[in-house]
Amino acid sequence: MTTEEEFRSALKECRDIFTAKLGDYSASWRILRPSSLTDQLFIKAKRIRQLETGEVAMVEEGIRPEIMALVNYGIIGLIQLQEGYVDEPDIDKTRAIELYDHFAEETLQLMIRKNHDYAEAWRGMRVTSYTDFILTKINRVKEIEDNQGKVSVSEGIDSNYMDIINYAVFGLIKTKGEE
Description:
Elements: H1 3-25, H2 34-52, H3 63-83, H4 93-117, H5 127-146, H6 157-175
Helix pairs in contact: 1-3, 1-4, 1-6, 2-3, 2-5, 3-4, 3-6, 4-6, 5-6
């Protein structure tokens, strides 16, 4: 399979989870402010790092579900950046999936461009490096949020969310078949 095919396959796994959770909870995440989404990404990435370093897990979920959560919360973050947060969920399942698909495709296209320029370097990386890079991106987002979105030369929150999603999808590709 090509990188694009592998990427699309991993995104489909994440989309299936997203869609199932929409059935359970609707678009309850619409109330989340950007900083809360960033904190949720942080929680997931920290848990992955703990599992990678051999910490004893007291909850019987492995790394892959947490990586999928990073993808889905990253896409939710992009939706929230565009749509803003609300006090009550305001979109139906169909609209939520349309927005999800839009940002998943936009992120995929970014990966294709970057993957071309970096000559598939991600394939030679360790999965643990993706976790570290994701944590770095999350810390950058926190700084940008703390500065009310102002940056002088850096990428914005949306670019960092897309990078988080892309690193997470690479992690899914490389861990496929595990657990």
